[in-house]
């Protein structure tokens, strides 16, 4: 189910003035016994253990491609957006050459953030602690009381730490700390085909509407990421009341949801997506539905995408970026310790959409999967419930069952990659298989120079 990744590349040389940590400063835990993809079992300690969480930050988040922002958030030099890569705060900005740059949001002097605003436009990033100031290219350009430093002090060696690789796909910006990564497009693999069903409707691409919504949940980030990769199974039970609200007058959607046919895509890189095929009921914004030219989409994307992942479903790009095509919702699950996550959510729409259609999609997403949305509330309650009891001594030792659809993955001849039936844990098993693989693979920063 998973591929083997061999450590490669030398450790990044330390800049002048940098310190090296001893290799044994943090424990490296073998997680092989915690994830049984062949048997479909998972040890719930993966949601609760602090040492495992610290290892995730350095072996899962640091080497992976992580979603940062949408290109529509940057139009002129100095536009910036602050976010996180794991728990590392970063600044995404457009430099004077109109290149997207990403920097660690931490002053090289005493470590305070050099940008405390969420979003805006600036000429420089200046630390409010002692006034060190950095240009849009990350270079240190101003040091108060410069004469107080030794003659050998060189500002050129104390610029902001930059994320070494930043790439975009269909307007989505990703970055990785890995100095020698597999390219983003290669890392996405077949997942790109499923993403295009949401992001490649026309040549104009997508734009962001309505800003970014943020909220905090008590729950491990993997609970959310795995659900969006693999879990249509919960819809009937968890969202029954919400589906009743959205059902056409006089109709009950429950049976059609329960017995809905579809496919689930699972990938060795941990990505996953599930979607009904030929859905009879469409639970989307009717204004958007009526505006959409499905004939043109069939010509652009093909029948398989229009009759599947375009119309509904859920997906996760490993490790922590998820999206909902029918809502235009993209979101990131920021880890905030083993027991807490911070959810950041955007609404993206086709750039060609007229204003009234954009607004209909924004409101629909807000009412369904916004912070107080009728579906989002159900999901958050489930994740928090799982987390709330997982620290119990006996509870924490009882394995969880991920056996639905065991060994059912195959090439169905219509959708790229390996798929199973819609009701399956296949993508969940692949998600945790990839997590296990990375957790047991030394990252570039652990290699000897």
CATH architecture of the largest domain: Alpha-Beta Complex
The proportion of residues forming helix, as a percent range, comes to 25-40%
Overall average pLDDT: 89
Could you give the order of strands across the largest sheet? 13-19-18-17-16-15-14-21
* CATH class division of the largest domain: Alpha Beta
- How far the N terminus sits from the C terminus, by CA atoms, comes to 32 Å
Q: DSSP strand (E) fraction?
A: 15-25%
Number of helices: 13
Radius of gyration: 23 Å
The structure class reads alpha+beta
The residue ranges in which pLDDT falls below 50 over 5 or more consecutive positions are 1-18
Number of strands: 21
State the assembly state of the protein chains. single chain
Q: Summarize the biggest pleated sheet.
A: 8 strands, antiparallel
The third-level CATH topology of the largest domain is Naphthalene 1,2-dioxygenase Alpha Subunit, Chain A, domain 1
How many structural domains can be distinguished in the coordinates?
2
Annotated CATH homologous superfamily of the largest domain: Naphthalene 1,2-dioxygenase Alpha Subunit, Chain A, domain 1
Mass-distribution shape: globular
